[in-house]
Design brief:
Chain A: Belongs to the PIGH family. Chain A: Pathway: Glycolipid biosynthesis; glycosylphosphatidylinositol-anchor biosynthesis. Chain A: This is Phosphatidylinositol glycan anchor biosynthesis, class H. Chain A: Keywords: Membrane, Transmembrane, Transmembrane helix. The complex is a heterodimer of chains A (about 180) and B (about 575). Chain A is of the alpha+beta class. In chain A, about 35% of the residues lie in helices and about 40% in strands. Chain A has three helices and nine strands, in the order E-E-E-H-H-E-E-E-E-E-E-H. In chain A, strand 7 and strand 8 form a beta hairpin. Chain B has about 575 residues and is an alpha/beta fold. In chain B, strands 1, 2, 3, 4, 5, 6, 7, 8, 9, 12 and 13 form an eleven-stranded mixed β-sheet that branches. The radius of gyration of chain B is 37 Å and the shape is elongated. The chains are: A alpha+beta (about 180), B alpha/beta (about 575). At the A-B interface, strand 6 of A face strand 7, strand 12 and strand 13 of B.
């Protein structure tokens, strides 16, 4: 278990956890900092003050109840669909690669890509507005032409770690993939 | 090379015995299907495996031996090794497990000496994998050279096709005792067996009668009418699918089975909703109430149209209309409305009877009631449709005349042969009359345009209402209710893929993974299993529609798609 101080492309600190289950299988978990209670309170207070101001002018209590309802529903949707808690990559030699992201509400979405479809794992560069960022991606083979790349699956899209973290993951992945 | 062994979870605690399964040797993996226990006669085992291979079509073989020594059962090692000579195979696996430890060890006997191999054990739940279907569904046999089946697909197919192997288990009185998923309990299998036998033909008589009626409708004079009335279209759609269902052949393949199941379930839900509607409609004199509000409602609509026309005949919105044309058009439409209202009043004693019998059609399903409602709305607003057609035709002629005379005004002509505008020299009198007519048409344009605008808006309103009805009918027809409920109650049956979890490891043992089924997303379920219908969808894009409205062409915004055949 290793834990160094990594950051993502915006400077927020993230943590990387590498677990090597065997010489054929290792797992990498990138965790993003959780929802901060201060931010939640600031947003809620803003929304409710606004609702109270509207109520002050219109004298309609539906405004207040709808503000409460909207805040609750918005928070629930945010933690269930938007806020990612950690993303993990499980590499199993000669079987495949499993990519999963788990959200703050506990929901997990998983995708498994078989080894026969994988051409390679590489670090790519991309121009993102005014920055050039690096991202780790899986290149998939075209079934008819084994030398062509049919599609690119980017990894760690929500946590967006920086190059030092990506290089670590890349080295371990290549060790496993090149063995089989 | 890495050796992957797919091991069923039900055999984790099985007594020692022989492993039966299949080698997927292109990828160096083995799928273990069952464990046959001692004592057995090798001849019987070979015969049994050959029988199972013939029945199921899966290349079964003895993979190796499994040992879980209980108390007082030592010294099995040499016995197990001797078994490999009785069953000559290319590869022989020897999987050992000790009570109290979680990990397995696997040794392999090889013909030649090679470097040490790595082994991965993938545990899977046999019953779920047997019942599940991987998506995207691949029908037919793919060409093994260009597109080999992926390893997971082969594994799923192996387990699904090996059903004959799972009939006898260790609790049966047979020559062989084996352990597989059935040893965990047999209740589920009875239900599965029963449900698999239910392809009985549904009551064929009712539907052959309906089909016969439908056949009459496709005779020439009635065909036009029946294609316009949505009730007839719905009837033909339903009878076609019922014929499909009542064929005595069982469903071939997963897609066919799901299609049939979806049709049956949506039909049942339809009829249930229809019954609910009937129950609501026929109590407390709702029908009389409806009939009593219908005629005054039609009167009210006619009165509103009257007032609208009077307003148009005056100076609507401050525009100055051409008095004579205005009066002509206004009186023409007023007379139409008068005719229509007399017709409605003539029909009014029969309305209640019509509604009563029409409501009975809901016993065939809610979709029929909705289609009937849509047809009735179309018939009741027929006068609006007529007005729209008159207004549109007048307007279209006017625009056509105007554009042609405008070209004359500029000294140009439309060349039909070359499909372009050419210059042309006109005579003096041609120019004179042309310009006169152009001016006349131009100054009459606002009047016609206004009438056209008003009636087009009314027509669009009716079309919108009908569109909503058709959309809900289409939704009831095409939504795969069975597939969706299967996804919610038994998510392992519709699999998008798999997911792996690393089981707790002990040092010195091989890697153990647990393979679970990743269910299909709900949106993918709807997309894959949608029943194709004759759905109404917009014929033109928004831009084309607006252009047609501007020019005055008649618009029929919904077009019926013909039913696709598989």
């Amino acid at each position: 278990m290793e834990d160094e101080a990594f950051t993502d492309i915006n400077g927020k600190s993230i943590s990387l956890d590498c677990q090597s289950h065997s010489s054929l299988c290792s797992e990498f978990i990138v965790s993003v900092p959780k929802v901060s209670i201060g931010k939640v309170m600031v947003y809620t207070c803003c929304v409710w003050l606004l609702a109270y101001a509207v109520f002050f002018f219109t004298e309609n209590t539906a405004v207040l109840s709808s503000a409460i309802f909207i805040t609750l529903v918005g928070m629930m949707l945010h933690i269930h669909f938007v806020k990612v808690d950690h993303e993990s990559l499980l590499v199993i030699g000669s079987l495949g690669i499993q990519v999963s992201s788990s959200y703050a509400s506990g929901r997990e979405t998983t995708t498994f890509i078989e080894m026969s479809k994988i051409k390679d794992i590489v670090i790519n560069e991309a121009i993102y507005m005014h920055q050039i960022i690096y991202y780790l991606c899986v290149l998939l083979k075209e079934p008819s032409d084994p030398n062509a790349v049919s599609s690119v699956v980017p990894l760690f899209q929500s946590s967006k770690p920086r190059l030092n973290c990506l290089v670590k993951v890349y080295k371990s992945c290549q060790e496993i993939i090149s063995k089989c | 090379m890495v050796l992957k062994i797919f091991f069923p979870q039900c055999c984790n605690r099985a007594d020692s015995g022989l492993l039966v399964g299949r080698w997927i040797s292109s990828q160096d993996s083995a799928v273990v299907l069952a464990v046959i226990h001692y004592p057995f006669i090798p001849g019987h085992v070979k015969q049994y495996i050959q029988q199972m291979q013939a029945k199921s079509g899966v290349e079964l073989s003895v993979l190796g031996s499994w040992s879980l020594p209980k108390d007082g059962q030592e010294g099995m090692e040499s016995f197990l090794r001797d078994l490999s000579t009785i069953f000559p195979q290319e590869r022989w696996l020897q999987i050992n497990r000790e009570v109290g430890k979680m990990g397995f060890t696997c040794d392999e006997e090889e013909q030649e000496e090679e470097e040490e191999e790595k082994v991965i054990f993938v545990h899977y739940e046999q019953r779920k994998v047997m019942l599940s279907q991987l998506h995207p569904i691949e029908n037919g046999v793919p060409d093994p050279i260009t597109a080999p089946l992926s390893e997971l697909r082969q594994m799923f197919q192996t387990v699904a096709n090996s059903q004959p192997l799972f009939f006898l288990d260790r609790y049966d009185d047979g020559p062989l005792k084996s352990t597989h998923w059935q040893t965990e309990g047999r209740e589920a299998s009875i239900i599965v067996e029963l449900s698999r036998c239910r392809d009985a033909a549904h009551s064929p008589s009712l539907f052959s009668l309906l089909y016969f009626i439908f056949r009459i409708f496709s005779l020439y004079p009635l065909r036009f009418l029946s294609s316009k009335l949505s009730t007839c279209v719905q009837l033909s759609y339903r009878t076609e699918y019922m014929r499909l269902l009542s064929s005595p052949k069982p469903a071939a393949g997963h897609t066919q089975f799901m299609r049939k199941a979806n049709i049956v379930v949506s039909f049942l839900v339809d009829v249930a909703l229809g019954m609910l509607l009937i129950w609501w409609l026929y109590r407390d004199n709702h029908i009389t109430m409806l009939a009593n509000t219908l005629v005054p409602a039609a009167d009210h609509v006619a009165k509103e149209l009257d007032e609208l026309l009077q307003w148009l005949m005056g100076a609507p919105a401050g525009l100055k209309m051409n008095r004579a044309l205005d009066q002509v058009l206004g009186r023409f439409f007023l007379y139409h409305i008068h005719l229509w209202i007399s017709y409605i009043h003539l029909m009014s004693p029969f309305i209640e009877g019509i509604l009563w019998y029409g409501g009975l059609s809901a016993c065939l399903g809610l979709t029929f009631a909705l289609s009937l409602l849509s047809d009735m709305v179309a018939l009741l607003t027929f006068h609006i449709y007529c007005f729209y057609v008159y207004g549109a035709r007048l307007y279209c002629l006017k625009i056509y005349g105007l554009s042609s005379l405008w070209r004359l005004f500029r000294g140009k002509k439309w060349n039909v042969l070359r499909q372009r505008v050419d210059s042309c020299s006109y005579d003096m009198d041609q120019l004179f009359i042309g310009t006169l007519l152009f001016t006349v048409l131009l100054f009459l344009l606002p009047t016609t345009a206004l009438y056209y605008l008003v009636f087009t808006l009314l027509r669009l309103l009716v079309v919108l209402f009908q569109g909503v009805l058709h959309l809900s009918v289409d939704f009831i027809n095409s939504f795969p209710l069975f597939a969706m409920s299967l996804r919610i109650t038994r998510p392992y049956r519709l699999a998008e893929g798999v997911k792996f979890r690393v089981l707790c490891e002990e040092p010195g043992t091989a890697l153990h993974l647990l393979m679970e089924i990743n269910p299909l997303k709900c949106s993918a379920v709807v997309q894959t299993y949608r029943t194709p219908t004759y759905s109404c969808y917009p014929k033109d894009s928004w831009a084309a529609l607006v252009k047609k409205l501007f020019v005055g062409e008649l618009i029929y915004p919904w077009r019926h798609k013909t039913t696709k055949t598989d």
